[in-house]
Protein: Uracil phosphoribosyltransferase
Amino acid sequence: MGKVYVFDHPLIQHKLTYIRDVSTGTKEFRELTDEVATLMAFEITRDLQLEEVTINTPVGPAQSSVIAGKKLGIVPILRAGLGMVEGILDLIPTAKVGHVGLYRDPETFQPVEYYVKLPKDIEERDLIVVDPMLATGGSAVEAINSLKTRGARNIKLMCLIAAPEGVAQVQQDHPDVDIYLAALDEKLNEKGYIVPGLGDAGDRLFGTK
Ligand code: URA
Structure:
């Protein structure tokens, strides 16, 4: 079963508080989401492999470490996932970015894929799927299905806030995928919102209603 990591770094928790606050406006919400994504990217890349290289400092030769040529990919689930991309790219500027777009069928309530554009060598990349809210888990499961169908083998899921229901769904359908969160909240309400959550992440990021 996939592991769940909740990043309890004080900076992440502090910024998340203001992201949650209903009085935080679009500009600040976007900036804070960006910053938290950067901090989470710092934590999520802890296990990247290093390799030794020889360089010359002004004083002489030295053995030193660099990241071992691992190819990374970021895959936001449209549209709210877009809000986390730039923050991750600040730390990993060479990562490629794919996109998966899903909408919810109004009759079946199931997520339906409407757009997928991915880096060509997706099977060679370590992918970080990003979506601020892991609610029922339906979109994340479908996005990961979509990536696996196209050859992806190494996938992590990074969200700001999850409900236990969403975590359980991803763990059931994709036991190979670890989940990285800033917070694990209490539950979903009858409208499918995470409680206490932050409201609709897409609307808050883009100033829509
Ligand atoms: N999507 C959101 O944006 N917010 C929620 O609380 C649940 C799903």
In short: The pocket of uracil is lined by residues 80, 133, 135, 192-194, 197, 200-202 (CB under 6 Å).
